[in-house]
Amino acid sequence: MVKLNNIFRWLSIRNKLLIAFAGLSIFPLTLVGIYNIVSTVRLMREVALQELTGDVHTIREKTENFLDDISSDIRVLQNSSSMETWMQRTSLSRGFAPSADLTHIGNEILSFAKTKEIYYQFRLIDESGDELLRVECDNPSDSTKTFRIVTPSELAGGRAQYYFLLVDKLGRNQIAFAPAEVAHRGVERIPVISFALPLMEHGRRLGILVANVFEKNLLDVIETKRHADPERKVVLVTGDGHYLYHSEKKRDWNRLLASREEDNLARDYTPQVATSILSGREGTLTEGTKEIISYAPLFETTPIPGTSARSLSFSIPIIVFVSVPESAVMGPARSYTMTLFGFLVIFLCFAVGLGLLATRQFTRPISQVQRGAEIIAEGHYEHRLEVQTNDEIEQLATQFNRMAASLQAHDQELRAHRMHLEDMVQQRTKELLEEKTKLHLLLDNVPSAFVLLDRNFCILTVSAAFTRVTGLLSGGAIGKEYSEVDEAGASMWVSAFSNGTTESRTRQVRHPDSGDRLLEYVAVPMKEGNKVTALLLIITDITERKRLEQQMVQTEKLVAAAEMSSMIAHEFRNALTSVKMIIQLFGESKHLSRSERRSLGVALDSIRHMEGIVTELLSFARPKPLMFKPTNVNRVLHSSIEFISPHVRKKEVALVSKLDASVGELPLDESLLKEAIINLLLNGIQAIEANGRMTKRGRVTATSKSLSLSAPLTGGSYRGGAGKADAAGLTLARHTNCVQIKISDNGCGIADDQLQKIFDPFYTTKTNGTGLGLPMVQRTVAAHGGVLQVESTVHKGTTFSIYLPIANGQKKQRHGNHSRRG
Length: 822
What we know:
Layout lengths: L3 H4 L5 H66 L2 H12 L6 H17 L3 E8 L4 E7 L9 E3 L11 H6 L8 E10 L3 E14 L2 E11 H8 L10 E6 L4 E4 L18 H4 L2 H7 L5 E3 L5 E7 L14 E3 L3 E8 H4 L1 H47 L14 H54 L3 E6 L4 E4 L2 H6 L11 H4 L8 H6 L3 E9 L3 E14 L2 E11 L1 H45 L6 H28 L7 E4 H19 L2 E6 L5 E4 L1 H21 L8 E10 L4 E2 L9 E3 L4 E2 L4 E9 L6 H4 L17 H11 L3 E7 L3 E9 L3 H13 L1
């Protein structure tokens, strides 16, 4: 069931009452008025159609009488004595009749025409189409007409085929007629109705008698008195739709036919209306046009069987229709409608006025109740209504006041409870915030990073240490899949979800600030019952731990090597001292031969070489304390190059130096750094000799320059081939300002398997080497807080790069003390 309240939501009680008052007042009047209007319109249309149909019948009846008179006149001329004499003689002479007969016929027709002025022309045409006789009106435009017999020279010859077509199928005493236009003296066009009678004798046609009647006379018959209506029009139209007569266009009778190309039925009416009028049937029209029309054929187009007095045939159909504008017929109905509308407006205003007065008596208290409800809805429960109507509305207001009092009491109780609950909530919220703050502080200050993932690997929470540990951004990570933050990390924990067991992985990552870092991932499944609902990732940076482990291993190696070196050096030095003294005593003997003295010299040289090795072992085992002071790096490089220059010249190896003048002073132990650089230069010369190069092609290059690190630089990682090897030690952060010292050679290079061992004590590939040179260089660089790197390619050469940070001497001293303790 349709509810009007759901459709018309804007209708208030007052509007509904006003609609009811208005409906009750004007609805009956409207129904009666509409019924009267419909009945009046129907009656007036029927009356108009009856009057129009009567006019059509009257026009047809008068037209038939007019045609009967014309037919009678033509038959009188046909049966005249002169016409019968001419027909008999023409029949006997087979087409040739004396001209005297034509003269008699012309005089009779002339006398006849003068008695009746409706005729414009009489013509007698023989069977060959030649005009034999013509009597016509000499002045068709004058009111008093005169007639004449046309001279033989004016007669037309062979140009009357139109009339033969008109009477082609007519029998004896049958007359055909049709509208036409005749040229008067070749200039003026006269609209006429042509009547043609075939002249028959013994069943053979001898000629045609033609009578042309002024069309105006037929139209005068149509124009006779009709119903007095100035807007009613009468129209004659041919079967092809052209006007023969139009009561609204009759200013010039002689141009009615001449203007038929411009004025036609199809131009003034719709195709449906024109088709109905030209159908040849009698009928009426009220639809599809703004007029009421009655139409019928003006007369029959075929001879009427059994009628000898008026055997007429009209070759072109002519339809007559009478019409009146629908607006003229419906004028009274419109007046009645306007009157009814005026009464409806008056009644509506009266009903609305009464409705406003009546509805105000109970809509005002209802508005008070509504306003009171709004005030109480806003929380003002102390508000009360004052309505005195002595009816149901006053009872409603009383109940409303009781409800407001009850709400006021309940509101006071709720406020007390709410205040108590707010205190409890604030206290609990404070406690939760404190616990949350403690937890966040605990998680954010733990060195490890924590990430909580759901079963879809989406991040639920992440600790502040995540960016610091992994180098990945954690801002806005909550809600994203872990693969969006760490592309390579999410696939490692699928098994932890499926198996529900704690798993750990170690993974090397590239930190944007501190370089290559080694991270340990521990995945801890979070279970509810037996179902894994989340996964806790604990990410710990173990780079320093691994580095310390490597340093401890290296330190242990160095301590073991130092202890062994110290023991060997002590034992060897005592033994070598005794042997040396004995050899020197033998050398002082004067009884030795030349060959014996040469042998003793070789033995002393060997002892001296062994003493050098022992000294080197002691230096490695008990390094001297570092003494830092501001020193120019270029000066140390230059001094080192000058020291080995005689050796370089002896070997004929090219020594090239490219020193950056912008390099300043650093707190250095000059002697130790010089010793380390000399060691690297000598290694380069030896690598060139081992490569078997020609002396002119060998080259050792020493360079220095200041730079700022674009990436973190870490010691302790090794890569073979054309890669790098870093001595285990410190890490220099990105953007650290450093002095770079490079010692390059184009010697034999270092194989991949050897590159990772070159900093181990006693590891050497030389025949007479001790394997302590590069470990001492590494220890010297580390004592200066620097990083030592090696890049090497077999048969192409090796480059040692020393990076010394530009920092204060106190920091250097700490590293130096650390090296002495190592």
